[in-house]
Amino acid sequence: MPEPLDTALAEVRTLLLGPGLTRAVAAGRRRGHSPSVVRAELRPVALKTGERLQIVTSDGARPHTRNVAPGAEAGQAVDALLAEPFGNWHVETAGQVLQLRVTKKGEAQVHRAAAPPAATVGPATPPDPAAAVAVAAAGGHDRAKDHLLDPGDPLFDVIGGSAAKRRQVDAFLRALEATLPDELPTPLRVVDLGCGNAYLTFAAYRYLSGRGADVTVVGVDVRDDQRRRNSSLAEQLGYGERVRFVAGTIHDTEVDPAPDVVLALHACDTATDEALARAVRWGAPWVLAAPCCHHDIAAQLRRVATPTPYEPLTRHGILRERFADVLTDALRAGLLRVHGYKVDVVEFVDSAHTPRNVLLRARRAGTPATAAQRAEYADLVAAWRLTPALQRLLPPAP
Hints:
This protein is of the alpha+beta class. It is 37% helix and 24% strand. Helix 11 (317-338) runs antiparallel to helix 12. It is elongated and about 80 Å long. 37% of the residues are buried.
């Protein structure tokens, strides 16, 4: 439910200047306005001269840090930041987490949640953020940081909160965190191709906006009933202006402007290849794909003679199917490298929870592939006499 912006910002001011502040981030911009800095982060610090409020601002090129004294100096600094036309505020205190987003109409969409309890490991109250990091390193397995999205977040009340779903959400968000830079670009545009029931789509928005990003998300699925369901959930969550859904195919759906992050999570068979091909054509800086079934290469392996001495890998049906999974993703990773991406293939979520546990994380390198990378891919497809779907969907590498 929208709230008056002045009232919501006054609440933010109280939290920023209160004794329980842990961390706060301001980022993004309001419609038709741009703040003088792209991001501001505030946190309390303990210096030799006493307690201070540390304010780190970034102009997009380099950060600027200053430490202000409690009282009038901190109040003036906070008031100056609150006067900036930031589009988002994320505030964490010892007692609660507040997320404020300014709508197109200039109102405040505010989400409040209780702060998750921290485990008592080492000192009960670390004297400063550095000590808190040390406590986490010492083994605080139950601390809130163990979940990038609080398991008690109201999002789970809407999308469902089974233990398995929360584990998958956390695994996905950790992969997303490891893929993106510490300083998120703004605005940040995300597209989820083949989004299905979209609970990871919503989790991505919730996490990225919580990091202070001015983020918009588009979910694409071929089924119109999914579009209607997911759009209704977005409105229910208060995300309707920032998360939208369209019905259409991965290959044909128009997304404008082109996204910065492309997600393709468990898109079946060559739908993963269609998503990767679109990401490459868009020149998307970051791509995360969790493939599902792998029928295309498996079918080709049944039609071609296996090169010597690898016949034992394809002689038995179950081994051929499993080898096809590995070979398919190896070819996808190789072809992404040929098209100028750095690629990691990692475990998505523990195989005890799902057998589809491979994740391709790709980052556009900004430099062309090397001759060795091109030769490696060419030799692999020539040896096995295969034509991967992704190769058919992409133009020749530059």
